[in-house]
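Lab notebook: predicted structure, single chain.

Context: the supervisor wants predicted structures on file for every construct in the current expression panel, including those that have not yet been purified. This is the next one on the list. No modifications to the sequence; it matches the entry in the shared construct table.
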Amino acid sequence: QVQLVESGGGLVQAGGSLRLSCAASGRIFNSYVMGWFRQAPGKEREFVAAISWSGRSTTYADSVKGRFTISRGNAKNIDLQMNSLRPGDSAVYYCNLNVSSVDYWGQGTQVTVSS
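Prediction complete. Output recorded below exactly as produced.
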């Protein structure tokens, strides 16, 4: 069983920065992709960023390109550095791990950006 635990959310003023972390545990034998999604009240969950198993490939939503950076600390840990935050970035951020077309999710961490 794969478990994901996020940390690092909080309240920040517009223009500020936050760093989210996600730690995965459990047996993961195949190559996998880890990433971040977010969900604001009344909206669908949306993709934010992802990083390949090797860490060599990253993808970002257009809305966060140039402001957010996803990185891999080791095989089972990723971070999301969020700079120049905007009120529109406020949401619950979920860590995601996809292996063999199966999605695993963390419990989510709240990010609130005040104007």
